[in-house]
Amino acid sequence: MSAWAKKGIVSTHPRSFASQLTRKGRRVKMNAVRLRSQSLPEAGENTHMRAILRGELVGHAFATRWLYEGRQICLVTQLCVKPEFRRKGVATQLLSKLKEDERGVGFGILGSHPAAIMAALWGFGNGLENVDLGVVKKHAHELMATSPVDYVKNAILSGSLLGGDGDGEPEKRSDGSICCAITNFYVEHKEPIAVLEEVRKTEDWPLVSCLRDMSS
């Protein structure tokens, strides 16, 4: 494991936790100590997966497991792929390997990048068309509150799906948000928004968008 891990580009938002880690407008870096506290909590069972192509490390994933209502939950806390190897199925294969031979385990990811969400949907399930929003609506609050990962446990959930009663079908909301988590880790969303626009050309994105440009 390298001493530094990159996680997107920091925004200029004044409350950004990411702004404490690097200069505004540059890619966020974490040293080994902060990376361990953020992605490898002592109270959880942690896994590190690596993707190696012809001897080169091209991607990796961290995941943490814990028990929720007697069932094991596995949440991806970091998913990184080298830029030149993105959109080639590396992330999906990493997550598929993470799930391999597992039974009765709930898998998930908390992130704002559509590419990471798509990789999780294909790696853990059957793509966008089989997203079960009812499960998210029913369990998100309590499940995340039991997480040993601090930024997950302390996240503020928002969006039409996570408030009020219903059968899992999202209600319309003025800002368009359906299923969002505020982690106070503000990063620029120009790249994720561009990816989302590409995804929407061929896919029916069920979560609308929590993305907005936090750079101004």
TrEMBL record:
Q: Which domain of life is it from?
A: Eukaryota
What InterPro entries does the database record attribute to this sequence?
Acyl_CoA_acyltransferase, GNAT_dom
Which Pfam families does its entry note? Answer: Acetyltransf_7
Q: Name one GO molecular function term.
A: acyltransferase activity, transferring groups other than amino-acyl groups
| Domain called N-acetyltransferase: residue spans | 53-104
Its name, as the record gives it, is N-acetyltransferase domain-containing protein
Species assigned in the record: Lentithecium fluviatile CBS 122367
